[in-house]
Write a structure and sequence with these properties.
Layout: H1 2-16, H2 32-46, E1 54-57, E2 63-68, E3 71-76, E4 81-82, E5 87-88, E6 93-94, H3 95-100, E7 112-115, E8 120-126, H4 131-140, E9 146-152, H5 159-167, H6 172-180, H7 196-207, E10 215-218, E11 223-225, H8 230-238
Parallel strand pairs: 8-9
Antiparallel strand pairs: 1-2, 2-3, 3-4, 5-6, 7-9, 8-10, 10-11
Helix pairs in contact: 5-6
């Protein structure tokens, strides 16, 4: 994670000096929101060089998520800061990655939307030159009750030009389907088309280790890499942890 790489020395120095900071423990019987606010104040005092965007209670009692840019750190109410991913060994689930993949983290402005806006959320990182993405597209078109966010994620040599042509089209969904069916698209006017959203989608995917297409992300942050039939898609979506969809 980029933040952790840039700030590793700062974190190590802060951790080594934590005993000298005099951070007091917060009472454990406080309301969740007040406890989160207390953790934020303590961490800001302890680590003034780290820009903490927000603090939320994690799935683990007494452990809080510190949202720092595109990364998540963890802290207790008392004094400890944890750096790294947390795994649920029973569920075989990376809790940190699931939170990083949460829909509120998705660059929604960079998505091509289809399906039902109020439905269960599904993100798909797709490449117009990816054979399995083309096959998956026909399945996605049948998920009328799902809120689908398709992100153009060009990994193949000819894909960037096609991604730009799709994004710069007045009807992006139609252009995407056309490209997936092997149809020709008009080259965009790069001088008038803003493709910064495409770049942000790629940055988002790279920061979260997405290396292949299609990559699917459910609303609870769980990820699947590869093609699924319509029946498999519906089954996988039905397994979502409803209470975790979108999170805090």
């Amino acid at each position: 994670m980029k933040f952790l790489n840039r700030s590793l020395n700062t974190l190590i120095a802060a951790l080594l000096s934590i005993s000298a900071l005099g951070v007091s423990a917060a009472p454990v019987n406080k309301a969740p929101r007040q406890a989160s606010d207390d953790v934020l104040r303590q961490m800001v005092t302890a680590y003034p060089d780290i820009q903490i965007d927000s603090v939320w209670a994690s799935e683990i009692p007494g452990l809080y998520e510190l949202h720092v840019g595109k990364d998540i750190l963890y802290a207790t109410q008392e004094r400890y800061l944890l750096v790294g991913h947390i795994y649920d060994t029973k569920a075989r689930r990376n809790l940190t990655l699931a939170r990083l993949m949460n829909p509120r983290q998705w660059p929604a402005h960079a998505a091509i939307r289809l399906g039902k806006p109020t439905g269960q959320k599904l993100a798909v990182f797709t490449d117009p030159d990816c054979p399995w993405c083309r096959k998956l597209q026909s399945e996605l078109e049948q998920l009328k009750d799902v809120d689908i966010h398709e992100f153009l994620y060009p990994l193949r040599p000819e894909s960037p030009a096609k991604a730009r042509a799709i994004w710069c089209n007045a009807d992006r969904h139609h252009a995407l389907v056309t490209a997936m069916q092997g149809g020709a698209l008009t080259a965009p006017d790069d001088a008038t088309c803003d493709i910064s959203a495409l770049e942000q989608a790629v940055t988002f995917g790279q920061a979260r280790g997405i290396q292949d297409t299609p990559t699917l992300i459910r609303g609870d942050g769980e990820m699947w890499v590869g093609y699924l039939t319509l029946e498999q898609l519906r089954k996988w979506l039905a397994e979502t942890t409803e209470s975790n969809e979108e999170g805090q």
